[in-house]
Write a structure and sequence with these properties.
The chain is of the alpha+beta class. The chain has one domain: Ribosomal Protein S5, domain 2, CATH 3.30.230.40. The strands form three sheets. It has a four-stranded mixed β-sheet, covered by helices on one side. Strands 5-6-10-7 form a four-stranded mixed β-sheet. Strand 1 and strand 2 form a beta hairpin. Helix 2 packs parallel to helix 5 and helix 3 runs parallel beside helix 4. The longest helix has 45 residues. The chain is globular, with a radius of gyration of 30 Å. The N and C termini lie far apart (91 Å). About 16% of the residues have low confidence.
Length: 246
């Protein structure tokens, strides 16, 4: 009798132990499955998007007063006023094609000439990009774009190298494009090159309309700069230079 009870108890015990074991395995499998599925979700949730790069510039001289804010990871929004309508238009399409957010106000001595306004806006905009990019780790650094605009073709190449160089060939043949003195297109890009410490090369390959020549250059420049500022997924946070400084 005792033997039968003992055997029955042992069987019952084995059944319980086996049940616990099976239950434990089932729970472990569930945890592993949850960890696998939840791990991906948690990782995605934990990986926050990189902070938007932005900068503001206040620049005041006896010739111009400039207030400027730029966001590199923008959505092409702009609010621009320089007192030169065609120049405003070029800066607006620069923001849209570069996908930058741009807020710019400039009060310049336009009663004297447009030169101070155009050049100083270029310098301030370049300084804003230089400040927003920080130490330039993890960016592509260089970019180029070939921009058609109807019968006109323009090319732009930008290198955020820390060195200033600018070459601009507009092929514009008139003194004015809209209300902008056409020779000041080069002064704007030279100013940007100095402010951003960048190489800027722009050339109209061919075209008939002087309006299209200038507009194609600004669009090409915006898209080349957009590429140069883009984050490099392959190199990550590495500095895009063997010198150790940009």
């Amino acid at each position: 009798m005792t033997t039968r009870k003992t055997v029955a108890a042992r069987k019952a015990g084995l059944g319980k132990a086996g049940g616990a074991k099976n239950s434990g395995a089932k729970n472990t499998a569930t945890k592993n499955s949850a960890a696998k599925n939840g791990g991906v979700g948690n990782s995605a949730a934990g990986a926050s998007a990189p902070e938007a790069r932005r900068a503001s510039i206040e620049r005041a001289t006896t010739e111009t007063r400039i207030s400027l804010a730029v966001t590199i990871e923008g959505s092409g929004r702009y609010s621009v006023h320089t007192g030169i309508r065609f120049f405003d238009h070029m800066l607006e399409l620069f923001a849209r094609h570069g996908a930058f957010d741009l807020d710019l106000r400039c009060e310049g001595d336009l009663d004297v000439d447009q030169h101070h306004t155009v050049e100083d806006v270029g310098i301030a905009l370049g300084e804003a990009f230089d400040r927003a990019l920080g130490d330039k780790r993890g960016i592509l650094r260089a970019g180029y774009f070939l921009m058609p605009m109807d019968e006109t073709l323009a090319i732009a190449a930008v290198d955020l190298s820390g060195r200033t160089a600018c070459v601009v060939k507009t092929k514009v043949k008139t003194r004015l494009v809209g209300d902008l003195q056409s020779e000041l297109v080069e002064d704007f890009f030279e100013g940007f090159s100095r402010g951003a410490r960048a190489n800027v090369h722009l050339k109209t390959m061919y075209g008939r309309s002087n309006h299209h020549k200038v507009e194609a250059l600004f669009k090409a420049f915006a898209r080349a700069l957009r590429a140069a500022c883009s984050r490099d997924k392959q190199l990550g946070a590495m500095l895009p230079s063997t010198k150790g400084l940009l």
